[in-house]
TrEMBL record:
<comment type="similarity">
    <text>Belongs to the PDCD5 family.</text>
</comment>
<dbReference type="GO" id="GO:0005829">
    <property type="term" value="C:cytosol"/>
</dbReference>
<keyword id="KW-0238">DNA-binding</keyword>
<dbReference type="InterPro" id="IPR002836">
    <property type="entry name" value="PDCD5-like"/>
</dbReference>
<feature type="region of interest" description="Disordered">
    <location>
        <begin position="19"/>
        <end position="45"/>
    </location>
</feature>
<protein>
    <submittedName>
        <fullName>DNA-binding protein DDB_G0278111 isoform X3</fullName>
    </submittedName>
</protein>
<dbReference type="GO" id="GO:0003677">
    <property type="term" value="F:DNA binding"/>
</dbReference>
<dbReference type="GO" id="GO:0005634">
    <property type="term" value="C:nucleus"/>
</dbReference>
<feature type="compositionally biased region" description="Basic and acidic residues">
    <location>
        <begin position="33"/>
        <end position="45"/>
    </location>
</feature>
<dbReference type="Pfam" id="PF01984">
    <property type="entry name" value="dsDNA_bind"/>
</dbReference>
<feature type="compositionally biased region" description="Polar residues">
    <location>
        <begin position="23"/>
        <end position="32"/>
    </location>
</feature>
<dbReference type="InterPro" id="IPR036883">
    <property type="entry name" value="PDCD5-like_sf"/>
</dbReference>
Amino acid sequence: MADPELEAIRQRRMQELMARQGVGNQQNPEQQKAQEDAKREADERRQMMLSQILSSEARERLARIALVKPEKARGVEDVLLRAAQTGQIVEKVSEERLISLLEQINTQTTKQTKVTIQRRRSVLDDDD
């Protein structure tokens, strides 16, 4: 008797969770398309702004960095865009200036890696 009731409760709970998260068929294809279009437009605006403040060599270097470490390139782009919006960048950023910016960011975000080696003596090893 409890099994159908339990199953009904589970179904209602699953529908509530899906409705909250907007997962599944809850979103219209129109809403998904609108979200994708907005994201695409934001990316295009971002790239246009970057092309205005970066020299061609600096853009190429940033593109190469993005291939290897996309999150790092995104962070550098954010720093550059913020600096341009606040008026700190008055001329195009050269490759040398981009390199110095990357070095500054690397020194600020350097992570120390510590490796610990633990050796265990095996029962079969004899030192005699």
